Amino acid sequence: MMRALWSAASGMIAQQTNVDTIANNLSNVNTTGFKNEKAEFKTLLYQTIQTRTTTANGEEKPIPAQVGLGTRTVAITSSFEQGPMLSSESPTAFAVSGDGFFAVRRDDGNTYYTRNGDFKLSIGTQGMMLATAEGYPVLDTQGVPIIFPAEVTGSNLEVAGDGSLGYRDGQNNYISMNRTVGLFQFNNPAGLEKMGSSLFAETVASGAAMNEATSPNLIRSEIRQKYLEGSNVQVADEMVNLIVAQRAYEMNSKAIQAADEMLGQANQLRR
């Protein structure tokens, strides 16, 4: 009977994690570049009641008798499917079509990766720089922060599909900056570590970042200026998943109540 209590309790804990994950998805339904997450579970150890031995009559048993001891969360996996393209009026709004990630550098000097291309123009000591909303510089294909010439005002900035940067001068002539926005891919993007602020960190599980500009075997991504990649969360699917998780949580609680009632009846037998 105690097995039922602990197994059902592990199920309630697992479903609580599932509900937490679904709630996080729903809360980020309007977050630029957010990727849907899914909780995955695995069974705990099994307790063997009878093994595959002969019975008292000397007959071979085809299968053993094993009782499971519950479940637990094994992973929360992000789905990196393409999100919808949302139009933007900002000339520094970039959306990635493909598997690439933008690279940014935080104050700790490390490089992080993001699908959120809602960038800004930050005025610093070295000039006008392409940066995230938090002020982190966006890196080019060489891993160097993108600094614009003084002639760039934002409204005359142009970014080609391959990420090459340029601008229009006073005579509307196109001037190339000979700089390209860096895009990087990973063998296993689901292995990236989530850092918050829509940033991911490279890990052993994700593999090393592969520069699209220097890796010939990669399918190149495309950058679309004045667009942002929306969240790939499907609200209808998440609501269905929430109902299923809630019902599973309820059934586990019913199992605990049933086990408790059976234990109570067993305790009353001596009376």
What's the arrangement of secondary structure elements?
Elements (H helix, E strand, L loop, with lengths): L1 H26 L9 E7 L2 E5 L14 E4 L2 E8 L6 E3 L6 E4 L3 E5 L5 E4 L5 E5 L2 E5 L15 E2 L8 E3 L4 E5 L5 E7 L2 E3 L7 E4 L2 E3 L8 E2 L10 E4 L1 E3 L5 H33 L4
Antiparallel strand pairs: 1-4, 2-3, 5-20, 6-19, 7-8, 7-15, 9-10, 10-11, 12-13, 13-14, 15-18, 16-17
Helix pairs in contact: 1-2
Briefly say what this structure is:
This protein is 22% helix and 32% strand. It has two helices and 20 strands. It is elongated, with a radius of gyration of 27 Å.
- Major β-sheet profile: 4 strands, antiparallel
As a percent range, the share of helical residues equals 10-25%
**How many independent structural domains?**
2
Proportion of residues in extended strands: 25-35%
Residue-averaged pLDDT, rounded? 89
Number of helices: 2
Order of helices and strands: HEEEEEEEEEEEEEEEEEEEEH
Q: Unreliable runs, pLDDT <50, ≥5 residues?
A: none
- Supply the helix-strand structural class: alpha+beta
Overall 3D form:
elongated
Number of strands: 20
Spatial order of the strands in the main sheet?
A: 8-7-15-18
Overall description:
With 271 residues, the chain is an alpha+beta fold. It has 2 domains: 2-52 and 64-77 and 235-270, no CATH class; 85-229, no CATH class. It is built from 2 helices and 20 strands. The chain has helices at 2-27, 235-267, and strands at residues 37-43, 46-50, 65-68, 71-78, 85-87, 94-97, 101-105, 111-114, 120-124, 127-131, 147-148, 157-159, 164-168, 174-180, 183-185, 193-196, 199-201, 210-211, 222-225, 227-229. Strands 8-7-15-18 form a 4-stranded antiparallel sheet, with no helix packed on it. The radius of gyration is 27 Å and the shape is elongated.
